[in-house]
Amino acid sequence: MRQVIQELQPQGAKPGQAGLLWPVFLSALMILGNLLGVYQTFGGHTPGLLVPVLAGLVALLCCLLGWAFQEKHAVLAALPVLPWVILFAAAGPAALWRGGKLWLNDLFTRWNLAHDGALSLFQVEGTMGDLLALACLLALLCGCAVWFFVAGRRVLPCGVVGGLVILLQLLGGTFSPLACALFLGAFLGLWITRDGGAPSRRGVFVWLAAVVLLALGTLWGGSRTLPSVDQLREDMTQGVHDLRYGETVLPLGDLRQAEKLNESQEDMLTVHTGQEKALYLRGYVGADYRSGVWSPLANRTYTGENAGMLDWLHEQGFDPLTQPAEYYRLSGEEDQPEQNTLSLQISGAARDRIYLPSTLSAVPQKGMQSEQDTTLAPTGFIGKWSYEEDELSGSRPAELTVAEEWVTAPGNEAQNRYCQAEAVYRDFVYRTYTTVDAQLADLLQAMFWDGYDQEGDGVYRALRQVRDTLNETVTYTKAPQAAPEGEDPILWFLTQSRQGNAVLYASAAVQALRAHGIPARYAEEYYLSALDAANSPDGTVTLTGQNAHAWVEVYFDGVGWLPTDVTPGYYYDTVALQQMVGTPDTVRKTAALEDDQTGAEGVTGEDNGGSEENITPQEAVRNGAIALAGLVGLCLLLACIVLLVLELMRAAVLWRLTQRFRAADAATQIVMLEGQIFAFLDLWGYEASLGWHTEELDAALAKEFTAIEPGEFHRVSRLMEQAVYGGLELEEYETRAIRSFLSKISLVKPGDGWEIRRRLRYGWLPLFAKRIHKRKK
Q1: Which DSSP category does 439 fall into?
Q2: Is 385 exposed, middle or buried (0-12, 13-18, 19+ CB in 10 A)?
Q3: What's 120's DSSP letter?
C-alpha cells in the first residue's frame, strides 16, 4: 500500500506561473463538465448554458485573484464573495427559492417517469428568469468549490462532487457523455499532480492519451445510452432477484411471451383448501397496457387528486383487497358463505409475491404488505415459503353476482360507512380501470359492441357478448406464436393469427370490457379447479406450471373485484349458468373436513393440542439447505457491512491525518512519518524504536524486502534522529528518502496471506496513533 499521507508542497509555499496555469486549466475544465451535467437535469426548462458558465468562470477568477493577492491586500481575500452579493442583489432570495422549486420539480418528474416513482411536486409559479438565477447560483457554488478542491489538491472531495453530479444525471435519465468526459479528464489531471506542482512530461502524455480515449468515447456514444451497460444492469438486477425469490417462469403480463404460460411441468405450489370450489390465486395484476405489456398502475397514479385515498379508505375500515369478503359479511348470515382457510406451500413458484384469492377475508399483519389496491408482497429478504389465508366466497361464477339492496339503501351504521367508502373507491376505479388502448379502440367497438343489444345490459350480458365474439373469431392454442416486431399482440391476435392462450384471451377481454365502460384488469398466476379439490383425499392439491392461468378481474359495483374467465374450458355455458341462478349456492367441504368436523384447525395443525406437521425427508433436506443458504447469505451480508464500516472509518482517519500533516510544521511532519514507519515495522514483527539495534534491523529488512537496499534503514534512521532529537530541518531530498522507505515497507510482498494484507490496511492506524500519543507525552 502506497503511503496516503503525502504532503503536496511545503507549508505556505505558492506555485510559480507554470505551476499555477495547470490547476486553473483543470478548474475551468471541471466547471464546464459539472455545469453541463447539472444543465442536463433542467429538462425542458433550460435557462441557457452560456450565462451560468460565465458565472462559474467569474467565480473561479475571483477565487484565483483573492488567493493570489491576499498577502499584499488582505481585503482581497473576500473577493470570492462579490459575485454572490451581486447575484442576491440582482435576483433576490425569492427568485432563487422559486427557481429551486422549479428545478426540483423537473428532477422529481424525471425520477417519477424513469422509476415509476410517486414523488410529490411543489406548488410554485415561476419564470425562466427564476431558473436562470438558480443556475447562476449553482455555477457560483461550483466555481468556488472546484477551485478550493483543485488548488488544495483535494482529490477525494473533488471525486465525490463529480460523482454526485453524474449520479444526479443517471437518476433523472439525463446522462451526458460529454459532461462525464470533461469531468473525468479534469479529475485525471488532478490525480497525476496530486503531489503538487506542474505535471511531468510522462504525466502529460498519460493525460493526453486518456483525454483522447474519452473524446473518442464521447463521439462514438454521443447522447445515447450504451446498450451493453443497460443490459448488464438489467442482468445483474434480475440475477439478484432470482437469487432472492426464485426464477419467474410466467410471462407476467408480457403478451410477447404468452407461450411461457404453461411451458413448465414443475411443481409450483401446494394448496390445502377446506372447500370444493374453484379458486383463482392471483399474484400479478396488470392495469396499464403499453406496447404489448400489462403493468401495475404506476405509483404516480396514487398522487395528485388521488393522494391519501387509500389511507383514508383504511381509516374507514375499507380495504380493496378484502372488499368482497366484507360485502358478504355485511350482507347477513343468510347470504354469507362459510369461511375457508387456505394453506400454501411454495416450491417452484416465485416468492416475491403472495398468491391470494380475490375474496381474501383479512390481510395478514406480519410478513406481508399491501401493493396499493392490487396484491400483497412479502417483506422477508427471500420472500415467504408458506402462509395461510382466510377467504369468503361461494361456488357460483362471479358473473352471477348481484349486489344486495342494502348497497344502495344501507340499513345500519356499518353498511353506511362501507357504502360511503365504496363510492369513493368506485369513482377511482372508473377513472383508472376503463382506459382503452387508442390503437385498439376502433377495432374493439366494431368487433364486440356494434349491433349489441343494450337492453338489460350489465356485467353478465357484456361478458357473454365478449365470450361469444371470441368464440366466433379466434381459437385456443396452448403455445401461440408471438406477434411480429412492431405489431400490437392483441391486434395481431384478433385480426391476423386468430390463435391464442389464456394470456391473449384475457387481455382482449379486458380491453373489450373497458371499451364498453366496465372496469376490468388483467390477472395472472395459478388456477385451482373445483374438480381437483374434489378429487383430493384431504383437500391438498399440488399446482404445477400446467395450472398457470390468466383471467379477467371485473369490478362489480358495491361488491368489489371478482374473477371472470373468457378462456375456453374455464367457464360455464349459458344454459349451465341459467340453471345455477335458481339453485342454492352451497359449497361442499373437502374429504378431510367431512371426516373431521373440528374445522380447519384439524388440518393446519393450529389449536390442536400441539400436533406437528408431517415433513418428508425431501422437504427436510430442502429446508436444511434453505436454512444453510440463508445463514451463508446473512454472513456475507454482515461481512460486507463490516468491510464497509472499516473502509469508512479508515477513510475518515486518513482524511484527518492528512489534514493534520498538511497543517504541521516540518519537524512535526518528520515525527508523524517516524510514527508510521515504526507502526509498519511492528506489523511486520520487528520490535524497534528510533536508535535501537539499528544495524541488526537494517540487515534483517534488507534480507526480507527485495526493494530495500543494505544500509537504507540505517540512513533513514539517522535522518529521523537528526530531525527528532537534534532539531535539524531536513532538506527536501532527505524527506523524500524517508517517504520512499515508508512506501517500501507498506507494500504487500508476493506470497503474503490475507491476514498480513488486512493488518497492513487497517492495523497500522491504531499503532501509529499509539506511537504519536506516546511521543506527545
Answers
A1: T
A2: middle
A3: P
Q: Give the residues across from 223 on adjacent strands.
A: none
335 vs 327, 399, 655, CA distance in Å? 10, 17, 73
Which of 223-232, 520-529, 762-771 comes out lowest in average pLDDT?
A: 223-232
Residue type, 287: A
pLDDT band at residue 466 under the 50/70/90 scheme: very high
d(CA 258, CA 478): 9
**Is 313 within 8 Å of 320 (Cβ atoms)?**
yes
* Confidence (pTM): 0.61
C-alpha cell read off for 688:
524497534
Distance CA 419, CA 409 (A): 9
Please give the Cα distance from 538 to 271 (Å, whole number). 11
pLDDT tens-digit series, residues 536-588: 888 899 999 999 999 999 999 999 999 999 999 888 766 566 656 555 555 55
C-alpha span between 345 and 538 (Å, rounded)? 15
Residue 58 has pLDDT above 80, yes or no: yes
CA quadruple 72, 76, 80, 83: dihedral sign: negative
Neighbours of 22 (CB within 10 A): 20
Cβ 481 vs Cβ 504: under 8 Å? no
Mean pLDDT computed over 219-246: 63
Cα separation, 357 vs 344, whole angstroms:
12
Residue-by-residue DSSP string for 205-258: HHHHHHHHHHHHHHHHHTTPPPHHHHHHHHHHHHHHHHHHH----S-TTBGGGG
Q: Which residues pair with 527 in a beta bridge?
A: 280
First to last CA, the chain: 30
Please give the Cα distance from 313 to 309 (Å, whole number): 6
Cα–Cα distance measured from residue 37 to residue 176, given in angstroms and rounded to the nearest whole number: 6
Q: Round to whole Å and give the CA distance between 777 and 607.
A: 71
Rounded Cα–Cα distance for residues 505 and 640 (Å): 48
| Relative orientation angle of helices 712-724 and 666-683, to the nearest 10 degrees | 140
Alpha-carbon distance 418 to 33, whole Å? 58
Query: How far, in Å, CA of 484 to CA of 302, rounded?
Result: 34
- 64 falls in which pLDDT band (50, 70, 90)? confident
Contacts of 249 (CB under 8 A, 6+ apart): 260, 263, 264, 266, 348, 350, 545
